[in-house]
Amino acid sequence: MSNKREMLMVLLTVVLVFFLTACGTSHEESTNILNTNSTQNTNDDSQNADSTENNSNTGNTDTDTVETSEKVDTSSNVSAKEEPPVSNEDEAGLKEEYVKKLNDTKKETEKLEATDSSTYALKKVENDRWEIWDRLLNDIYGVLKEQLSQEKMDQLKEEQRNWIKSRDKSALEASKKYEGGTQEHLEYVIVLANLTEARCYELVEDYMK
Description:
- With about 210 residues, this protein is mainly α.
- It folds into two domains: about 1-85; about 90-205, Substrate Binding Domain Of Dnak, Chain:A, Domain 2.
- It has helices at about 1-80, 90-110, 120-145, 150-175, 185-205.
- The longest helix is centred in the N-terminal third of the chain and has 80 residues, at about 1-80.
- The chain is rod-shaped.
- The chain starts with a helix and ends with a helix.
- The relative contact order is 0.07.
């Protein structure tokens, strides 16, 4: 009887120890599972926060790009406004201005009078008339340099050289009619003045825009 009781006690003790061991293991596993879930939730929150920050930075980059693009377009518009096209009316006005100069100069030179009837006084009048037309000729030539293309200007330069030679030759031949007389030089200057006047009108009418 005593032996049976001892064996029963031992059996109960073994069962109790087994039960307690099983309960302890279950509690540790539950604790580990809770800790694992908490860690995962924390990591997920961190990842969500990083993702939101990255999206915010991307949005700022797009805004900067738009602003830069708008500035470039504005600069382009300003540049276009700074270069207005040349007006045909301005060119026509310039030609009309020089036609008026020609007519005014003709009236001016026609008013020139000699102080007396001497050849010297007459030569001075014609020499002054030639100088006036020659200055206007140079003025017109300078305007044409700005208006004409390089090719046309080169052609005009060659033509002008030939015209000067022809003018001087014509004046010389005309003066020979009075060779050795007091009228020789006077006739020379008269022809120079007349041909220079005609050349001024020709350049304005045929070349100026």
